[in-house]
């Protein structure tokens, strides 16, 4: 029987199992075998494992302590399959990311500051440095942290996630189409006014007014978007070609670029109004990488996002989204400019997960058979 | 910060968090406060806790080691609310029960036998002794146990759950209506041929043929039942009155008695065919207490269940249910006759759950406010 040390943490609005790479390595099988079996996959209920049987609760992080020269921790995000014994290594999860800094502080991997502690984390899925800053008043993590975010019912440690110089990480260029704004043709003779930006993730932001939406009635956008899903998808696919991400609209990837709608805010409670689409549907909140993209776009003169704000841009940008107001932050760190958001994080359980060699051997064999078939 | 020791276990087709009573007691708040907060309730996603956000994964067991004179372990089952910060102590969970014996063996609370180890467990919710028998070849729990049950994708330790003398525990009588079989009037002038039995839980079993169902076409029963839900509920409520459980059909409780349909098996792969209803709908499997009731009914001459079997009743009774064949066991233990089923169990995680006094104080205050409102 092996015992694998792991920590169950809430990061933002996700639940994530956190492993040190050495723990998984000692299991003697690859993470592609070990993680699904530990999570209880393949099984729609993940009954025999620690997975939560939903996409936001079937997530893992693999951490490696670094020597501190460039980063303090490098981490790899794993989306663990539920009905299939698979692991998707293709992207990072902004919410789970927020657990990495807290873990490093809890483990004493970084010296604690008197007010806040900075943890330099490197995400290997995306090649992105994320500077995390967590309050440690008096050099201690508070026993009963009180920070809150929309979408999480209980408080936790406040984690400022700063994406270091996120521009152009996917395409090599902040403005991959070469233009700050474009009247993009789509469908049969229609056009939309958009800006295509690569920061955090590639996004195409549509001027909501040019799409026929009313800034005075943000609450109606979700219903309106739902009636015009094919058009939004056509714009997304046209943008994919314009950004050099695909050779034709038909060849566009499902998740890249993201598409959203933006307008000015009619009141002083927000700086912008944003409705992002996710997997073909209006998102009630916002992917963290999408909020990074919108923030960089707002700071890039000439985009349809920047033109919505007539005043000096604050460091804290307030984005109205369906579930509330999301605040993004632009900061200067010792390493360069960062753009990010506040999340919260909390440790739910410190655990040892027992797993037998026999279980792992069967899981490994089942995966090989799947590949052969 | 408190650290509460807990073990996450699969019991049958449920996931259960197992606590020793002393651990919860040391938290300084009642289990009604501590369990919902640890589980992350109230929250439809149980995002900030260890609950699984479904009824079968928001369950806890509280164990007390006994001196062994009468039982080895007493245990209390807790159904932890998800959208409400509540705990329901009203019933036991047969699946979670299967984790109790394994826990006691893992902790060394009972001497291990050379082939199997018997653990005498007492459920405090129902006043029911459940004798558990688990293989321990060579005096050891196998490292890689291989027992399987329908509904669980991965194997575990085989646990024989024997309900000790389960007759009449709710009503005081095995046949609370005084009759082995009854033509029960329901609705507007209709009747059904039923037997009403109290064993494990009060049940009313309907002769499927008298209800117009064909034993040759068991697969059609679920669809047929779905089109006649009001009738089945009328029968259940009429039985509730006949069993002395309610003064009128309108006053019948939602979960007591359970109602089901029974016929002979047209082939030799099962002894009976059974479709049980649960919360008003056909159940794809079967509540464990219901399977105890059906088994006792099969051993009670004159019931509509017993008459379906024309041969000498085996100790292992095979019940065809929609998902497969469930085997129940009737045994003589040193304490008396037991009726029960095989389940499997496995430890998923050995954990410490951190929780602050502040969190518990707020949870306690929120509960008091709810009561006042």
TrEMBL record, chains A, B:
UniProt superkingdom: Bacteria
Gene Ontology MF, one: isomerase activity
Protein name, per record: Methylitaconate delta2-delta3-isomerase
Keywords of the record: Isomerase
Family annotation (InterPro entries): PrpF-like
Gene3D superfamilies for the chain: Diaminopimelate Epimerase, Chain A, domain 1
Record-stated family: Belongs to the PrpF family.
Signal peptide segment: none
Species of origin: Nesterenkonia xinjiangensis
